[in-house]
Design goal:
The protein has about 400 residues and is α+β, with helices and mostly antiparallel strands. It contains 13 helices and 18 strands. A hairpin with a 3-residue loop joins β13 and β14. The structure holds 3-hydroxy-3-methylglutaryl-coenzyme A. Belongs to the thiolase-like superfamily. HMG-CoA synthase family.
């Protein structure tokens, strides 16, 4: 029996900034951001969106009533959670009308935990072939105004339904993974912004990828020619390109060009959204599936997941015959088209308007067109509203 991703869906807030505007405001050359970092736009979350609402907004678009009745586990991966005790998965279970006999859990290990959630889902479904597991990877990447990491912020959520005989792709049992205690990026409990040793983190990312790639090759006897495309965690899209370039010399020029072309497809949406931490590799997978028209059923894809701190995993997926039917094909183009551009000063105000630390605060939700929004905090309890 094959197990894998049956459906995927995405959500990101309705505001964005242009990286040329940000470069001008920060006194940088626009090409540093556009080419050197590889980002053109950045999603900006208003106070009315958090990881719970974004996760619910992503998953809601793909779930049928039957799915909601049959889901056995909700696994919520995030590193920008809203509570130290209560899991975001319990909130989304209620918002989405998922049955009360589902297990709910929140996972954390920087950007890596979405992959752990996916593998847990795969293993659960392998043991319980009738089961459906909902995996949500949702985050708001915040480094702070005027910081080196600012150009790599972003926000959004990817939702995946894991089942037997999946529509999109099977998750093959060939993972290699590793962990090492490294201070490249972290966020202390009392801080709403991440602390990062930027260049060190990029070097560790490449080291982990190379070590896992060598281990994967040794364990599976497969090489780059085995794959139609490599999908990467994309904290900024140049990062994946650097890792890919590290291994490209292993294959012919023709294969190198094919892999680079697929890479362009896989970073198309990430360039416009920014880092969404746990969901970034899976947004990149969606981007590949929706933008690479040379993909075919049976193609194998390799995916490299990296989370600072640090943990990495590399595994393969096999595309299924009607993989497009598991995606909402116009979802991302429509979402991007409907977004509103913010000036840098509007973004800076929005950035400062987080509800974290409030005991009582009402938010104006009239400008947020998403189905699920945060309307405020009452007695330290988050108030979630379904708008339509
Ligand atoms: P920086 O120091 O501002 O940038 O920070 P830089 O000086 O290194 O320049 C960046 C690139 O732009 C360079 O290219 C320059 O040459 C180029 P590279 O040498 O790297 O190929 N450049 C130009 N290109 C064209 N025209 C120009 C021009 N000027 C310069 N005019 C840094 C960059 C990424 C360090 C910073 O943004 C940062 O700290 N970001 C956050 C950390 C990060 O994303 N790390 C990635 C690996 S860790 C990870 O993936 C985990 C993470 O997602 C978190 C988690 O796990 O939870 C972050």
């Amino acid at each position: 029996m094959q197990v894998g991703i049956d459906k995927m869906s995405f959500f990101s807030p309705q505001h964005y900034i242009d990286m040329v505007d940000l470069a001008h405001a920060r006194g940088e050359e626009p090409d540093k951001y556009l080419i050197g970092i590889g980002q053109t736009q950045q999603a900006v979350a208003p106070a009315t969106q958090d990881v719970v609402t974004m996760g619910a907004n992503a998953a809601d678009q793909m779930l049928t009533q039957t799915d909601r009745e049959e889901i056995e586990e909700v696994i919520f991966a995030t590193e920008s959670g809203v509570d130290q005790s209560k899991s975001a998965a319990v909130y989304v279970q209620k918002l989405l009308g998922i049955n009360r006999y589902a297990r709910t859990i929140e996972l954390k290990q920087a950007c890596y935990s979405g992959t752990y959630g996916l593998m847990q889902a795969r293993d659960y479904v392998t043991l319980h072939p009738e089961a459906k597991v909902l995996v949500i990877a949702s985050d708001i990447a915040r480094y702070g105004l005027n910081t080196g990491g600012e150009v790599t912020q972003g926000a959004g959520a990817v939702a995946m339904l894991v089942t037997a005989n999946p529509t999109i792709a099977t998750l093959n049992q060939d993972s290699v993974f590793m962990s090492d205690e490294i201070m490249d990026f972290w966020r202390p409990n009392d801080s709403s912004t991440a602390v990062v040793d930027g260049k060190f983190s990029a070097n560790i990312y490449r080291d982990f990828f190379k070590e896992l790639w060598d281990r994967y090759r040794a364990q599976t006897s497969r090489d780059l020619n085995s794959f139609k495309a490599l999908v990467f965690h994309l904290p900024f899209t140049k990062m994946g390109l650097k890792a890919l370039r590290d291994v490209l010399p292993e294959v012919s020029e023709e294969k190198q060009n094919a892999l680079l072309t697929s890479f362009e497809a896989s970073r198309h949406y990430n360039k416009q959204i920014g880092n969404l931490y746990t969901g970034s590799a899976y947004l990149s997978l969606m981007s590949l599936l929706l933008n690479d028209d040379t993909l075919q059923a049976g193609d194998d894809l390799a995916l490299f997941s990296y989370g600072s701190g640090a943990e990495g995993e590399l595994f393969s997926l096999t595309l299924q015959a009607n993989y497009n039917q598991g995606l909402i094909t116009n979802q991302l183009p429509e979402l991007l088209e409907q977004r509103t551009q913010l000036s840098i000063s509007e973004y800076e105000q929005m950035f400062a308007s987080v509800v974290q630390g409030s005991t009582n605060r009402a938010l104006d939700i009239t400008h947020d067109h998403a189905k699920f929004v945060l309307s405020g905090v009452q007695d330290q309890k988050r108030q979630y509203v379904e708008q339509f």
